[in-house]
Amino acid sequence: MSSRRISEREFESYVEEALASVPAVFRKYLDNVVVAVEDEPTDEDYEETDTPDDEDLFGIFRGAGYFERDAMVSSLPAQIAIFRGPILRECATRGEAVREIRDTVVHEIGHMLGLEDGEMPY
Q1: What is the pLDDT of residues 82-118, one digit of tens each?
Q2: Which of 44, 85, 86, 116 is 20 to 30 A off residue 54, Cα-Cα?
Q3: Pairwise CA distance, residues 62 & 7, whole Å
Q4: What number of H helices and E strands is found in the chain?
Q5: In DSSP terms, which residues pair with 105 in a beta bridge?
Q6: 81 DSSP β-pair partners
């Protein structure tokens, strides 16, 4: 089955499953983090991540990193956004989409914890 046939609700449930599969040792850092599914990244998201316009952006971490929060004063929670459109365009099958969603969730949690792209554990 094509990944393009994944409904918005199914996609959100895959994000929830990915979050639930994160080991508790890392999940505890998500207490004050909003995880949202968005259709497409904004121009600002591309600028913030230095992602070239001809590449798809699957997710972004917005806000102060977990270990920087004490130094920052903000009433807004940090946010992880997972972008449905780019993931579904890139993945040919439901299985590929589920794996990409999980990888993207883990990747953005890594950014929240201060890891750079080259330091990710996969």
Answers
A1: 999 999 999 999 999 999 999 999 999 988 888 887 7
A2: 116
A3: 25
A4: 5, 3
A5: none
A6: 36, 60
What is the distance between the alpha carbons of residues 21 and 63, in angstroms, rounded to a whole number?
23
SS3 category, 83 = strand
Residue 57: inside a domain = yes
- State the Cα torsion 78-84-85-88 to the nearest 10°: 140
Domain that holds residue 98: 3-115
Reading the block at residue 68, the tokens are 């920087």
Residue 13: which CATH number?
3.30.2010.20
Rounded to whole angstroms, the Cα distance separating 117 from 107 reads 8
Two structure tokens written together for 47: 């600028």
